[in-house]
Design brief:
Strand order of the largest sheet: 3-4-5-9-8-7-6
CATH class of the largest domain: Alpha Beta
Order of helices and strands: HHEEEHHEEHEEEEHEHHEEHHEEHH
Largest sheet: 7 strands, antiparallel
Shape: elongated
Number of domains: 3
Number of strands: 14
Number of helices: 12
Helix content: 25-40%
CATH topology of the largest domain: Protein Transport Mog1p, Chain A
């Protein structure tokens, strides 16, 4: 009986363990639907946010930055450069701010057509995404190439991993987008954290956002060139600040939201005081407003700090709409939501383990109670039987007698 009890306990433990383990199918995320985009046309479906995880490329990391041929397009050995001034003399300072590493220049030909192509590599995906938003003008149609793409007539821009590509095509065709996707698949990508886009993008409210107007900056040159709302020296790029600017289509008028991310909340608080004083003073000869501020509704201009984030709204909406947009920037709430989401698997595992232990303890208690009841039933029944026959309840008092039949 003891062996049967142990076997039953082990079987039930194994069953509880199997039920507590998560299903392999449940652990896998549902595949995302592909974007439906046509080159040179406004897309019907686009990704919600540029800050989506990227798939690690199968191309070796030490492979050439761009291939010598793709989709029938061919070029001699691409020209490699390490000086941003050779890639873009007018914007070399901005490229340095984004962490420019090296570049490859090439002219591809096929049947009399050409592609003038520049591939710029940066330290990580933040630099590549920043360069993409730096060169892409607001309102360019979105394309389905790499991690993000846009086009303007014969010019195509896209970024993937830590690489940004700027191409000028002599003739567009129905296959141009697919040909550039083939090119993107041959570009080597980094691994680990270098693939992650800027986390500041997740702080942008999604309601009424025009996704083709985002501009990400890591320094004053790129910020000013993209029409920054605030004076660059007030932001504090030299102290590790980064910015993202985006346009919103509100019911009362267009608005611009500027979010500045600082390394610490204390730095953000100090910057808030300086920027708030600048905005409160208004347009003065000593500290004139920037053009975006001059074109804004004075009552709509507002600044707010939340954690290490500093948000400024400007543009031409009414004051209430501008305030609602600014109020939708919540660093602490978003961080709490992310923390709760990241802790869900751990909490589920702890809960299942507790349920397993509780099940084992319950089984032990049930088996112990059953053993006691069985012992009472068998022992008590035997004792009653002996008493009914006129014998003591226990056989301890029975005298042992050996009888030999010697007849």
């Amino acid at each position: 009986m003891r062996n049967q009890t142990i076997s039953a306990l082990l079987c039930l433990t194994a069953a509880l363990t199997a039920s507590a383990a998560p299903s392999p199918q449940a652990a896998q995320p549902a595949p995302s639907k592909p974007s439906v985009v046509f080159l040179g046309k406004t897309p019907t479906t686009v990704p919600k946010s540029p800050a989506k995880p990227q798939t690690v490329s199968a191309v070796p990391a030490n492979a050439p930055l761009i291939p010598t041929n793709f989709a029938g397009w061919e070029t001699p050995t691409p020209k490699s450069i390490t000086d941003p001034a050779q890639a873009d003399p007018a914007n070399a300072s901005a490229l340095k701010e984004y962490g420019f590493s090296d570049a490859a220049l090439a002219t591809y030909t096929r049947e009399g057509q050409t592609i003038q192509l520049k591939a710029l590599r940066f330290g990580d995906a933040s630099g590549a995404y920043g360069a993409y938003t730096f060169y892409r003008q607001s309102g360019w149609p979105k394309e389905n190439i790499g991690a993000g793409a846009a086009s303007d007539h014969n010019r195509i821009l896209f970024w993937l991993g830590n690489v940004f590509v700027d191409a000028q095509v002599s003739h567009l065709s129905a296959m141009t987008a697919s040909e550039f996707r083939e090119l993107a698949a041959s570009i080597p990508q980094p691994s680990g954290n270098k693939l992650l886009p800027p986390p500041i993008l997740d702080t942008l409210p999604q309601a009424d956002l025009d996704g083709q107007t985002t501009h990400y900056a890591l320094g004053p040159a790129a910020y000013a060139a993209n029409g920054g709302v605030l004076p660059p020296d007030l932001i504090g790029f030299d102290r590790g600040a980064e910015t993202v600017t985006a346009s919103y289509t509100l019911s009362s008028g267009p608005a611009t939201l500027t979010i500045v991310n600082y390394p610490t909340p204390q730095m953000a608080k100090a910057a808030e005081q300086s920027i708030a004083a600048y905005l409160k003073a208004g347009n003065t000869p000593q500290r004139p407003f920037t053009k975006p501020l001059l074109d804004s509704n004075p009552k709509a201009i507002e600044v707010k700090r939340t954690g290490p984030l500093l948000a400024v709204v400007s543009g031409d909406p009414i004051q209430d709409d501008a305030h609602r947009l600014l109020s939708s920037v919540h660093y602490e709430a978003e961080m709490s939501a992310e923390a709760a989401h990241s802790q869900q698997p751990m909490q589920a595992s702890v809960q299942k383990t507790a349920q397993l232990i509780l099940g084992i303890l319950t089984l032990v208690a049930v088996m112990f109670s059953a053993s006691v009841l069985l012992a009472l039933f068998l022992g008590g029944g035997r004792a009653l039987y002996r008493i009914a026959r006129g014998k003591p309840a226990s056989s301890v008092y029975d005298l042992e007698f050996i009888k030999l039949n010697l007849s």
